[in-house]
Amino acid sequence: MPQQKPRLVNLDLDLVRAFVAVAEASSFTRAGVRLGRTQSTISLQIKRLEEQLDAELFSRDPRKVVLTGQGEALLAQARRLLRLNDEIVGEMFEHSLEGEVRFGAPEDFATTHLPGILGDYARAYPHVSLSVTCDLTLNLMEKMSQGELDLALIKREPIGANVGQPVWREHLVWVGAGDDVLPRDAAVPLVVAPAPCVYRKRAMAALDQAGRPWRVAYTSPSLAGQHAALRAGLGVTVLPSEMAPDDLFIFGADHGFPPLADAEIALVRASRSLPVPADRLANFILGSLDSRRSRHD
């Protein structure tokens, strides 16, 4: 008996975009608000996509919508598909998308991960004005609440999808100029950002739990200022491992430093429905970081 050929399915990008919106919002209703559609329309689109793929993408209960294993496997690929679509449309019809996007991000993450992403976006949509603000998470959230930003990447504890969409995990390490910056039998001098700061909180909590005394030796909101203080031997700090400068030293258990749990970066959208240029930037960021995370893992 001849082997049956697999059926060819052409995915409807409107259905894919609805799927991504529901996955990010954990809600059919919130996804509908984002896309300007009713909850029933979004629900019907998800049902049609599940029929196309012959897969159950969400498990539904009265309180929340959760991705199934098949849904999780699809999400990263769906974001890549939407980004490619948006790039093609942007190049073919670049004159048709105009406006302004106000975007915020922490300085260290912006300088390490975002230049290429923002450059790709600017080339795809040259008539969109992109305004980028680098600041501490607290200030970014304040600007978001005041309607001054459309999108922001923030640092946070891994707390799920209630505040923003998780996009990146950061492996944290202790960093300093070398052993000679550590006083013998005295408090650990810390170089930190102003409170509240996830890295600052992690450093102090970890040392407290390990029973090791500490003191704040230097405070700066600027990453460059913190690096200068570290190179001057003023103390140690907590940084993501991939952001630790090559000329600085990473301390471990052999130096009496406790391990640190990962931190998280999340994408936060304005509560109102996003304009199309801002929604396209969100797709660029999510799709690009999905790809980098896959290579990183």
Description of the structure:
The protein has 297 residues and is of the alpha/beta class. The protein has 10 helices and 12 strands. The protein has helices spanning 13-25, 28-35, 39-53, 69-92, 107-113, 115-124, 137-145, 198-210, 223-231, 276-296; strands at residues 58-60, 65-67, 99-105, 128-134, 151-156, 165-170, 172-176, 188-192, 214-219, 236-240, 249-251, 263-269. It has a 5-stranded mixed sheet, with helices on both faces. It has a 3-stranded antiparallel sheet with strand order 10-7-11. The two termini are 43 Å apart.
The assigned structural class equals alpha/beta
Report the end-to-end length measured between terminal Cα atoms. Answer: 43 Å
CATH homologous superfamily classification of the largest domain: Periplasmic binding protein-like II
Identify low-pLDDT runs: none
Can you describe this structure in just a few lines?
By secondary structure, the chain is of the alpha/beta class. The protein has helices at 13-25, 28-35, 39-53, 69-92, 107-113, 115-124, 137-145, 198-210, 223-231, 276-296, and strands at 58-60, 65-67, 99-105, 128-134, 151-156, 165-170, 172-176, 188-192, 214-219, 236-240, 249-251, 263-269. The mean pLDDT is 83.
